[in-house]
Structure formats: structure tokens, C-alpha cells
């Protein structure tokens, strides 16, 4: 490594032990030698917990009286990343333990303490640690996807592949036959059934998902083994996540999709038409474009329901919101429900001055068994403002002079003092409530 960046081995040893500063020149050499985006050095999206996640942990009322400042958290995250990761894992497990305390009261034990973290949380954190990109899986899916390229019907090509390579017959069946499932594979009868309630794009995705399970079985198995999930349930969810990722990569092969995304400047509807995918599938796919030497715009993505529950959270680079909670009410993601089908664009600015360009829009659930139920979800996509000129939705905006909406990571850790949308007081701050006057913010507090 020292030879790669043109320094001595002893100097590299000093850098690794924090006995010498990493200069700008060294950073540039690292970026060039190992094809690393410079922002990755400052991002919390890697393998270990960053200062932002530690800030959320130490804002908890149990710890907030310690008064640990951001400089100390940055130092801990930089100098002891494994310790930082351990703190965040323990806190995540504690939150889950508080949610289901009866497990301990009843005397149940677990062989692996990581099982206190929910499967969804474990898988989400693992995916983010990989930056939502799997190089080997991408390569295999690209070869397969290009071989199945059919300008008229991707689903027909997928159906033929299942039949010819694996003897699997694909059928669209009445939902009553599936008893609550949207799709089902019967390995004994070699039959794959898809609910008639699914829209065409979701049927195509289902075919690609089943093909991935059969065609890429050894690779998916090895990837799950390498991840070392704590229990069988988490492993099954991770394996399904890999197969879902592969389905999107088969439908939208990396090289062809990246070229189209750049050519059409990430216009989602244009990409939907070209690849026979829906809005959510396209949105998810553009968060995965992290191939070394061929990267796309590093988007983050959230999916929420009308009640504010977050069901998907991905980030190709940095993520400006809370890892443990929800989003800032000043971000227009939830406003998308008021204007179904329309794309809302917004510039936002975090407390540290970083600015993001975001778009929000509603989508429909892939399946709705009861027509009385609400069919809408909302997705939000965003990226650092420096990438905005590459995005069609930013056209017409004066990116340099348009005011950005000030947002925060979550109310409990947001330092903004005069926010009228604040839902909770900030942790570890003294309230400044006065009986003779009321402030715009419902929870005024003293500066830290």
C-alpha cells in the first residue's frame, strides 16, 4: 500500500497509528490509487458508526447528561471505529430490548447477543455497510440481463429462461389460489405462480427474482455465508434482499442502465419506459450505481407510508437524516401525499451547512388485496447539490441562489433553535420556557 501511494512503510505505519496527520496530498494519492470518491473519507455510510450515529446514541436521556460534545464524538469515530460500532450495536440492541422486554423476563436466552437486533435492522445496516452495491453480483446479473435483453418484452424473455433452463412453468393465477401470497414457487411441480393483482412491472420483477434464486443460487448462498447473520430468520431476510437486488440488476443491467441514466439525466419516467420498470424499482436501482470506475450519482432513498413509517432506507453516499428515527418535518417527503403523482423538488440544508437536492413523489403499493385500503406510499430521493446539474429535475433552478430549506437529522438531536416544526425538545439541552412570553418554537432551549 505504501508503494501504491508513494510513501515509506514506516510513514504509513505512523499514519495508521494516528501519529502523523493525513495530508491533502496523501488523500489525493489514496483516491487515485484505489479509485475512491473523496467524499467517502468524510461519509458515515461505510462499515462503522460515524459521529452522526454516535450523536443520536448520546442524545438519549439515559446518556445526555454526560454532555459529550461533537468534537469528542468525531474523535471517537475517527480513532476507535470498532469501539464506535460496538456502542451503536449495544444501543440498537437496548432499544429492541425495551420494545420486547418479556423475552428476558421469561428467562429466554440467546446464543448470539446480536439476535437482540431485529432482522430488519441487521440487514439494513449490513446493506449500508456495503454501500448498497455488490460488485460480483452485479457482474453476474449484467451478463444474464444482457443475454435476456428483449426490446418488446423483458418478462417474456425471463419466462422463457425459467422454462428452458430450469423447466419452470410460469403462471398468472387468481389471488385466491395463493392464499395471501403475491407469488409462490412450487419446486416439486416446477411451477411459479404470480398473483393477478400484481401490476405488469411487479410481475416482471417477480420473474427476475425467481430466476435469480435459481440461476445464482451458489453465489447468493456464499454471500449470505460471508455476511454471518446472527440467526436463521435474519439470514433468510438477507438472502431475499440479495435476490431482490439481483432481480433489479437483471432487469436493468449495470452498464446499459448507467448509460441511460446519464443520457436521460436520471429522469425516472423515461427510465421506467425504457426498462419496463416502475418508479420504485428505478429509484432503488439508481442508489446502487457504485461500481468502481463507473459510478452514477450517489443518491439516498427513503420510502414512507402516510403514517410516517420508514420501510426502505438506502444511501449511495451520505445520508442527512436520523439512523434510528424518522425524517425532518420540513423535508417535503410527506407533502407528496397532498399532490399524488406529482414530483416535488426541494433544496435542503443540514445544520453543518451541507446542501442536498431532493425530489419526492407518491407511488402505489405493488399489491392491494382490499380496495378500501390506502394504496399510496411516498419515496424521497436526494443527492449532494454538487450533482444536481446532472439531474433533469433540477433544470430551471438557480442552484447557487435558491434558498435551501433548513432541515435537521431528527428533532431530538437537531441543534436548530428557532424551528416552529420541532416535535420534541432537544436531548441534553436546558429548556428556556418563560411564563410571560411564548416563542415560535414549542420547545425553546439555551445554546449548548
UniProtKB/TrEMBL annotation:
Gene3D superfamilies: lambda repressor-like DNA-binding domains. Residues 1-41 form the HTH cro/C1-type domain. It comes from the Bacteria. InterPro entries: Cro/C1-type_HTH, HTH_RamB, IrrE_HExxH, Lambda_DNA-bd_dom_sf, ScfR_C. CDD domains: HTH_XRE. PROSITE patterns: HTH_CROC1. It holds the Pfam family Peptidase_M78. Coiled coil: none annotated. Belongs to the short-chain fatty acyl-CoA assimilation regulator (ScfR) family. This is Short-chain fatty acyl-CoA regulator family protein. It comes from Sphingomonas telluris.
